[in-house]
Amino acid sequence: MQHSADGQPDGTATVQFPRPGFLASVFREFNTDQGQGQGQGQGQGQGLDPDAADPGPAAPGTPGDGMPGDGASGGGGSGDGASGDGPAEPEESIAAHGRAAALTHHRTLTVQAEHDRLADLLRRAALPVSAMDFESQLRHYEPRPYPADGPQTGSEAEPRWADFAPAGPATADPDGAPARRLLDSGYQRELAQARLAHQRSLREWRTRRAEADNPAADESRRVHEAAEEARARAVREYNESLEECRRAYRLSEPAAVESLLERALAAAETAIQDLPAPCRAVFRPLTRTAVLDLDLPPLDLVPSLTGYRLAPDGDIVPVPRPPADRATDYLRLVARLALRALQAADAVDTDEILAGVVLNGWLREPGTAEPLCLVSVDADRDALARTRLLPPATPYEERDDEGVYADAEQDEALVRLRQLGAAVTPDPYGRVGVQPAAQAGAAVPAAPDLSANEFAQLVRDLLTRGGLAEWSVRLRGPAGLVATGEGAPGSALPGRWVVWASRGAAPVSAEEIVTLAEAVQEESAERGLRLTTGRFADEALDLTGEESHRHIHLVDGDGVSELARTHLGLPLAAGR
User: Fold this and answer.
1) Residue 282 to residue 74: CA distance in whole angstroms
2) Phi, psi angles (nearest 5°) of residue 495
3) pLDDT in the model for residue 175
């Protein structure tokens, strides 16, 4: 507090700073740029005495002269700014590290979502397949009543008040006057409600009667009846066409069988609609075999990373999965899709028209001219009857060691697929293909286009229809088979036979005839049959002309084609 000349306070205050640059340090703590002019303005804004706040000209080297060492001067301000930048650099580094950590976590969650989607696809791909046979496709007509239908007004009587009037109130004096009973308040409420109900019923009766005489109501009813008749006719025509397809299916007509199979395959895709895996079917009546072409999902569907990690230098580094694990997961999904298609074809064939099914799984990648076959299955009816899909919960119970994933050797779908004799690629990401068991070509293929099961089925059909019963296959491979059979006396093929059937371009040599003769002796059979889709060497023909080998009979490619035309009613091209 300052004092005047007479020693009295004059009402002004003088602020004493404890040290030079104190105000600048205060403003520096609040991140405020402090200059000499700003300090003066702040002081005046606080009600300070301008004379006291302005110390006047300062001596060189003293605080406030702008020389080095002055905390409030320009030089001092720059020094303070430099000291302020020092703590800001660690804070910026920490913020950048936090942003990188958050981005790493976000990318890892995205990869985890891809793993969860794959696990869900594996679960849904193993769900049971609903049979799409003819019985399940039948439609049923249920008539819908006309909305305005109600009581028939022609025979309906007008509502009477007697049907709505309440009973009279009870009274203690039966001999009392009726007027006294009408004064009861409860009875009056019941009477009012009954009159309202009677008036409402009477009004509705009159409305129905008026609508019955309305031409618009009659037209509406006629339109409804015509629509119902059209619905009934559509259901009837559909069921008749379905029955016609069923008759054609039982006659093994290719169009009817393929239509039924593709309906079943399309129905099997409903559980995995977000994973398009179309499957096309071709039926070959010669061997009663369906050849299915399954389009496999793209390879990038299986995640290639386990997540991301933050490196010490702040970089976000992807963590790749082992290639073997990724290939195993893709094959697990392929196995389920293949089993699903096989089960759909087997479930729909209730009349047992199919003798077998060949399925080829094709990987079609953009930019490639030819698709790559990654899996091929050649299964007969007996093998399909023993194969079932996995229960939906068994292989997906999460465990601490492996979660939803399992090794290829422990995966049930892959195990069952290999039990069917399937050829599966060892490395899908290395584009290692397998040989298709059969190509989905013409309905009447050439002999080399048949699968191993198809060729065995063809030979069996030809010989059993020729009279050879009790068929028993001893050896079977891609090139042919060895079987035994026994024909009834008086048939075209009487006695016990050993049959060796093969297909190939190389001519059958005399050594193979000698081997067949030895097999006939070992099996205690009477005759041997050497069947080939190609031809026989001259030495083999000469050998069978000798007395020691006359019990060996030969059928070449032309003979096989003639047997197919005679016994099966269908041609067969012996070669290309």
Assistant:
1) 91
2) 85, -175
3) 59
Single out the residue of 379, 383, 522 nearest to residue 438, CA to CA. 379
In three state form, how does the secondary structure of 461-486 look? HHHHHCCEEEEEEEEEECCEEEEEEE
Residue 96's contacts (CB-CB under 8 Å, 6 or more residues apart) are 314
CA distance 466 to 494: 10
- Is the pTM value of this prediction over 0.70? no
In the chain, what's the furthest Cα-to-Cα distance? Answer: 163
* pLDDT of the residue at 48: 40
CB 364 within 8 Å of CB 390: no
Q: Are 374 and 425 in contact (CB under 8 A)?
A: yes
What is the helix (H) or strand (E) element at residue 552, kind and residue range?
strand 552-555
Contact (CB, 8 A) for 443 and 254: yes
pLDDT in tens, 514-561: 999 999 999 899 999 999 988 999 999 999 888 888 899 999 888 888
3-state secondary structure of 141: coil
Of 341, 318, 196, nearest to 271 (Cα)?
A: 341
- Provide the sign of the torsion angle of the four alpha carbons 153, 155, 156, 158, taken in this order: positive
Q: With contact defined as beta carbons under 8 Å apart, do 503 and 447 qualify?
A: yes
Give me the torsion for CA of 263, 265, 268, 274, rounded to 10°. -110
- In the numeric block, the tokens 């009546």 are attached to 285
Per-residue pLDDT tens for 53-74? 444 444 444 444 444 444 444 4
- Phi/psi-derived region of residue 291, left when phi > 0, alpha when psi is between -120 and 50, beta in every other case: beta
DSSP 223-251: HHHHHHHHHHHHHHHHHHHHHHHHHHHHT
Q: Which residue has the tokens 């035994």?
A: 484
Which residues, listed in sequence order, are joined to residue 376 by a DSSP beta bridge?
360, 423
Tokens describing residue 182: 């009408």
C-alpha closest to that of 358 among 475, 277, 451: 451
Query: Identity (one letter) of the amino acid at 178?
Result: P
Task: Determine phi and psi for 36, rounding to 5 degrees.
Answer: -65, -40
Q: Is the pLDDT of residue 362 over 90?
A: yes
> Among candidates 483, 453, 488, 449, which has minimal Cα distance to 468?
488
Cβ 335 vs Cβ 413: under 8 Å: yes
The pLDDT score that the predictor gives to residue 69 is 42
DSSP bridge pairs for 318? 308
Rama region for 193: left / alpha / beta (φ>0; ψ in -120 to 50; rest): alpha
Answer for the pair 536, 556: CB distance below 8 angstroms, yes or no. yes
**Rounded to whole angstroms, how far apart are CA atoms 128 and 17?**
88
Per-residue tokens: 41: 């303005």
Q: How many helices (H) and strands (E) does the chain have?
A: 16, 12
Tell me the three state secondary structure of residue 28: helix
Give the H or E element holding residue 310: strand 305-310
Strands 527-532 and 552-555: parallel
For residue 484, give Cα distances in angstroms to 61, 201, 463, 497.
Answer: 122, 89, 11, 6
| Residues facing 553 on adjacent strands | 529
Distance CA 200, CA 483 (A): 90
